[in-house]
Amino acid sequence: MATISKSLLSVVLGGSILGFAQQQPASLESLFRAAQQAQAGGDYTTAVNDYTQAAKMRPDMPVVWVNLGLTLQEAGNIPAALDAFQRANRLDPSLYVPNLFLGMDYAHSGKAQQAVPFLIKAKKTNPSDAQAPLALGRAYISAREYSQAIPELDRALHLNPKLSTAWFDLGIAQLDQVESDARTISIENKQSPFAGALYAESLVKQGRFGEAASLYQSILDSKPQPPCLHSELGFALIRDHNLRHRKLVRGIIGTQGVAN
User: With contact defined as beta carbons under 8 Å apart, do 121 and 98 qualify?
Assistant: First the structure.
């Protein structure tokens, strides 16, 4: 589920609500302030009810739907949050928050292609926030578009080098890109032992030692032969044996633990 950072939430609550409320009738202003206090205190039921009442009073104001969407998001009601963000987006397609959360929620629900346009718009709207390129990079990974994901994750890390999840996602994207390129080369050059060796190397990096060993064995008799083929095969076999042994030991220990 897409989460809301404290800094983002404070901007929305502290800026847009107060600026909006000051221009509204007293009843609407008090409703917004009550919703703000309830949301800040984690009372999402009250906050949702208050924002819903505000939406009925002013359905033409995007900020109403933005804050209702954020509250629903925090409460874990993603379908309702999506509806609120969509309403805000229709009223003002240039707003950062609806585009960001529509993109993140679509990506989380497995609709990466639908997520991408919203996240691209969010990134352009607020180029200083790392959350948009981070979410966009993840959406590209889900869509298996690794060459698109890598620069977005690089951008997120440039904006915020402390994003540990972005470093992890970047590593995954780069490994997947290597595997994808190696697979493409091996398919397009089926007779090339060098393409096979390259693909086997990518399998080793993913810990798929048995598959790598089988592929190395299949090209042992090739001419010309890739360098260090026998040693690479030996290492893959050893690692595969060690991995199987560890799994066997863990299985035995786990079974004994259950029995005891």
Answer: no
Q: Please state, in angstroms and rounded to a whole number, the distance separating the CA atoms of residues 222 and 201.
A: 17
Contact 210, 240 (CB under 8 A): yes
Nearest to 28 by CA among 39, 12, 17: 17
Q: Please give the DSSP secondary-structure letter assigned to residue 129.
A: -
How many Cα atoms within 13 Å fall on the side-chain side of residue 34? 15
Q: Identify which of 206, 226, 207 has the alpha carbon closest to the alpha carbon of residue 216.
A: 226
* Amino acid identity for residue 92 in this structure: D
Question: Is it the case that residue 63 has pLDDT exceeding 80?
Answer: yes
Do 156 and 163 touch, CB atoms closer than 8 A? yes
Q: Please state the length of the chain.
A: 260
pLDDT digits (tens, 9 = 90+) for 193-227: 767 777 788 788 888 888 888 888 888 877 777 77
Count of other CB atoms within 10 angstroms of residue 125: 16
